[in-house]
Amino acid sequence: MKKSVLVLGLAALFFVSCGEKKKEEKMKPMMQQPMMQHNTTTETKEADTTSDMADSNVELGKKLFTEKTCATCHNPTMKVIGPSIKEINRIYSEKNGDIVKFLKEESKPIVDTDPGQVAIMKANLDGFVKNLSGDELDAIAAYMRSVK
Length: 148
Prior knowledge:
Layout: H1 2-32, H2 42-67, H3 70-73, H4 85-94, H5 99-103, H6 115-129, H7 134-146
């Protein structure tokens, strides 16, 4: 049991530390590029703004997903303790589910319905997620949907 906790702690630390490197790498090329003036139409500006907002929402969701320890149990591509994000996306898409309603505990689990897993997830939702705003939950859902 102690080894499992240690492995999970190390995995969480790995996810957190890798996230910081990616942010630094993203920022470096942006800082090195010269500022350019663009003559664009209103439609293009609105599309850019919408895209920027969606990107920032995904980034916020990724940050919250890690901070709220979701990443400890949910890996993007493979089952760890809980199902992978890809698996969650697939099932929610197939069953036309609403992940935000589940996170708000307004709908029942549809991915892993094993009573033991449900109890673990409920404890995590009660401990880490219940105080998040609707916008923050939408951001987590946006990040999860961005995982392909």
